[in-house]
What does this fold into?
Amino acid sequence: PYPTRESKRQEFYYALAGGAKGISYWWFKKPNGLGTQEPEAMQLWYEMGLIGNEAKTISPLIVNSHPVSMQITGTNGVWARAAASGTDAMILYVLNDNYYNDISGCHYTPINNAIVTASLPTWLTSSPTAFEVTPGGLSNVTTQLNGNQLQLSLGTLNLTRMIVITSNPLLRGLIQQRYDEKVRPGICSFAPTLCPSAT
It folds into this structure.
């Protein structure tokens, strides 16, 4: 069978956490690739468009990032890794580890009230803020800083979360501008439900 949308998303996030810089996909050739237009192929292609655009939103950070050894704890079942980017940002890749894949698909249990606590390096402890990157845009993440311990409240964790922690007060606005100009038009073209009209 084709990989499931869920398993491809997990695979990509594990790759990013390991230091990958982006995504490409070559398996399009007929009669066996994604070019078959079968429903499973189209669903997988759709998901790859979503995760590709998540990465595109912060690609300048991803390209300049590298995995770092940082103490991170989380709610039972939460897996998280960090990548430092420049001198004022950290990317957290968070995954739900309560899953298994078999011939019938991907099976997972959502984690409610997911919390991640990261021990920040000294260069990131000056008024850090956090925001999440999704195909539908950016959103703030609720945080609480205690010394160098930053607690992030993530709500319900289904599969993956991409979180940027930064001490740069301008970074979120710059990433928002990049999303609006370079990512949102593409998302709206194939996933219009993620692009409600501005009110």
Observations:
- The first strand starts at residue 65 and ends at 68.
- The mean pLDDT is 93.
